[in-house]
Amino acid sequence: MMRLLPLFLVLLMSACAQHPLKDDSLYRDLGERTGITRIVEGMLLNIAKDERIVERFRRIDIQRLRDKLIEQFCVEAGGPCIYSGDSMAESHKGQNVSRSDFNALVEDLIAAMDDQGIATPVQNRLISRLAPMRKEVIEK
User: Fold this and answer.
1) How many CB atoms lie within 10 A of CB 24?
2) Phi, psi of 59, deg, nearest 5
3) Averaged over 66-83, what is the pLDDT?
4) Which residue in 102, 97, 106, 108 sits closest to 139, CA to CA?
5) At a CB cut-off of 8 Å and minimum separation 6, what does 127 contact?
6) Are 51 and 3 within 8 A, CB to CB?
7) Most distant CA pair in the chain: distance in Å?
């Protein structure tokens, strides 16, 4: 048994080394869950006033959308959240979202982050993490 203890410790330490701590600096820079909630709510308020895209949200359960966006932004920012919504491709299937629709939403997100005093480099970090989803949202 004593001969197995060093082997066990080496295996345990190597397993821990394979799972580095998650970088949550963006999550913290966004104000954690409270800050992300304010950003999402601000974005939704901006969308409600945005004649370019407001019609796309008329038949959407805004409370559910709010909750899923908070989860998603939290996960993408490295926070301790779990996203429980559908994939972006599934959520936007058949909606014929255009590039201009997508860009309008991003502008509304940026305005919400500006309103919360989020520094531009921090905004850019979040947007760069969300950007890969663009191809799943826009229909060609």
Assistant:
1) 14
2) -105, 20
3) 96
4) 97
5) 106, 109, 110
6) no
7) 72
State the pLDDT at residue 13: 52
Q: How far apart are CA 69 and CA 72, in angstroms?
A: 5
Q: What is the DSSP letter of 90?
A: H
Place of tokens 């599934």: 90
Identify the helix (H) or strand (E) that includes residue 123.
helix 120-130
Nearest to 124 by CA among 134, 115, 114, 133: 114
Q: What is the DSSP string of 19-37?
A: SPPP--HHHHHTTHHHHHH
Q: What is the pLDDT of residue 139?
A: 73
Query: What is the percent of the chain where pLDDT is above 90?
Result: 65
- Element (DSSP H or E) covering residue 108: helix 99-115
| 40 vs 23, residue with greater confidence | 40
Mean of pLDDT values over 96-116: 95
Model confidence at 20: pLDDT above 70: no
